[in-house]
Design brief:
single chain, alpha/beta, Rossmann fold, Tyrosyl-Transfer RNA Synthetase, Structural Genomics Hypothetical 15.5 Kd Protein In mrcA-pckA Intergenic Region, Chain A, 3 domains, six-stranded mixed sheet, five-stranded mixed sheet, 20 helices, about 45% helix, globular
Length: about 400
C-alpha cells in the first residue's frame, strides 16, 4: 500500500492506532499482512456496529492483504468479560459451532472469501493441546495488578460482584492468540483495545514483531445514546431485510445522520461534509436525508433496486398510513395466543421477546393496542409488531 493509499485508509473511521509508524514499516515491505479478526461466537447476529471494522479490513483485502478470521471456539467457553457487569453464562459446543457458521455467512457480506485473502482458524487448535506447564509460563508474563486495574473489574469490586479467575485471564488468552496467528495487524472496536494490546509483549517474547492495533469508532445504536447492541435492542443487523433496515434507519435521531453516513456508508467524506453543512443550515429536510442514508446503507448489502423498493414500501406504510401488500400470513385456530403467533408467524426470537414487546406497548391487532401478554386471537385480522413487522392472521 503506497503512502497516498495509507493516508486515505487512515483518514476515515480510525480512532487510534498503535502505531502508525509500525504500520507504515510493515506495509513498506510490500508483503501481504496477516490481519487478525477474532470473534467469540456468543450470539448469532452481526450488526452495523461490527461492520465498521469489517469494512476497514475489506479495504486492505482489496489490495492483497489477508484476513485471518479466528473463531474463538475455546474462548467462547470462557466468555469475554469486556463491558459485562456479571459473569457470562457458559456456552455449549453445539451452539458455538452453529453460531460460527452463521457468523461466517454474515461476514462474507463484507469480506472476500478468496483463500488468498481469507483464512479461517480456531483457537482450540492450540489451547486444547497446550501443556499446563507452558500455560503457566504465559500467565507468568503479566501481573495480577495489570489485569485487575481494568475499569470493569474495579466497577464490579465496588458493587460487590465476584470476578472469576477465568474472566481475569481472558485478555491473556486473546492476546496470546496473536502469537499463534503471527498477526501483523488487528482492527477492533475501542472496547477491545486492552485485550489486543496484551498481544504485543507476548509477540516480542516469541521473536515476532508486535501487531499494530487499530481501533475504529463505536457506532451508536438507533437510540442515538448507547452503543449499538443486540441486548439493548438498538441494532441494525446485517441479516435484517431491506425493509427492516430502512425502517430502523428512519428511526434514528436527526443528530445521528452524519455519524451514520460516516461510519455505515461508503459515501465520500467530501459529500458527507456538504450534507452536514446543508443540515446545519436547514437547507435539507432531515427526513429526506435519512431516506438517502437508508438507501446508501442498504445498497452495501443488497442490490440498489431493493433499497429503492424498501423506500417505496416505507412511504406507503408510514406516510400514507397503509398496510403492506406482502405481509406474511399465519393460519391458526381460534383462541391461539398472540405470543405464539408472533414467534411462529412473524419470526420473533422467543416467547420472552414477544411478551417484552407486548409489555412495551409495541403490538397492535386491527389497530387496537394489545396490553395483555396472555391475549388470544378470536378473529382474523392484522397484527402489527413494532414499526416494522406485520402479520396477517387467518383463523381456521
Amino acid at each position: 500500500m503506497e503512502k497516498g493509499l495509507l493516508e486515505r485508509f487512515l483518514s476515515r473511521n480510525v480512532e487510534t492506532i498503535n502505531t502508525e509508524q509500525e504500520l507504515a514499516k510493515k506495509l513498506g515491505r510490500g508483503l501481504p499482512l496477516r490481519i487478525k479478526i477474532g470473534v467469540d461466537v456468543t450470539s448469532s447476529d452481526l450488526h452495523l456496529g461490527h461492520a465498521v471494522a469489517l469494512w476497514k479490513m475489506r479495504e486492505l483485502q482489496d489490495v492483497g492483504h489477508k484476513i485471518v478470521f479466528l473463531i474463538g471456539d475455546f474462548t467462547s467457553l470462557v466468555g469475554d468479560p469486556t463491558g459485562k457487569d456479571k459473569t457470562r453464562p457458559e456456552m455449549k459446543h453445539e451452539d458455538i459451532e452453529k453460531n460460527a457458521k452463521t457468523y461466517l455467512a454474515q461476514v462474507h457480506k463484507i469480506l472476500l472469501d478468496n483463500p488468498e485473502v481469507f483464512e479461517i482458524r480456531h483457537n482450540s487448535e492450540w489451547w486444547n493441546k497446550m501443556p499446563l506447564s507452558q500455560f503457566i509460563k504465559i500467565l507468568a508474563a503479566t501481573t495480577h495488578g495489570k489485569l485487575i486495574a481494568r475499569e470493569m473489574f474495579q466497577r464490579r469490586l465496588e458493587q460487590g460482584e465476584e470476578i472469576h479467575m477465568h474472566e481475569l485471564i481472558y485478555p491473556i488468552l486473546q492476546g496470546y492468540d496473536s502469537v499463534e496467528l503471527k498477526s501483523d495487524l488487528t482492527i477492533v472496536g475501542s472496547d477491545q483495545l486492552f485485550n489486543e494490546m496484551m498481544a504485543r509483549p507476548y509477540q516480542v517474547s516469541a521473536g515476532q514483531e508486535p501487531q499494530v492495533v487499530l481501533t475504529v469508532p463505536v457506532l451508536p445504536g438507533t437510540d442515538g445514546v448507547q452503543k449499538m447492541s443486540k441486548s439493548l435492542g438498538n441494532y441494525i443487523a446485517l441479516n435484517d431485510s431491506p425493509k427492516e433496515m430502512f425502517g430502523k434507519v428512519m428511526s434514528i435521531p436527526d443528530s445521528m445522520i452524519v455519524t451514520y453516513f460516516t461510519l455505515a456508508t461508503n459515501v465520500p467524506s467530501e459529500e458527507i461534509q456538504l450534507k452536514a453543512n446543508d443540515l446545519r443550515a436547514e437547507k435539507i429536510n432531515p427526513r429526506d436525508l435519512k431516506m438517502e442514508l437508508a438507501r446508501a446503507i442498504i445498497s452495501r448489502y443488497y442490490p440498489a433496486a431493493e433499497a429503492e423498493q424498501a423506500q417505496a414500501d416505507f412511504i406507503k406504510i408510514f406516510s400514507k398510513k397503509e398496510t403492506p401488500d406482502d405481509m406474511p400470513i399465519f393460519t391458526c385456530a381460534k383462541g391461539e395466543s398472540v405470543v405464539k403467533a408472533m414467534v411462529a408467524g412473524a419470526g420473533i426470537a422467543s416467547n420472552t421477546e414477544a411478551r417484552r414487546l407486548i409489555v412495551h406497548k409495541a403490538v397492535e391487532f386491527n389497530g387496537q393496542l394489545i396490553t395483555d401478554d396472555k391475549a388470544k386471537l378470536n378473529e382474523s385480522g392484522t397484527l402489527k409488531i413494532g414499526k416494522l413487522k406485520w402479520l396477517k392472521i387467518n383463523l381456521e
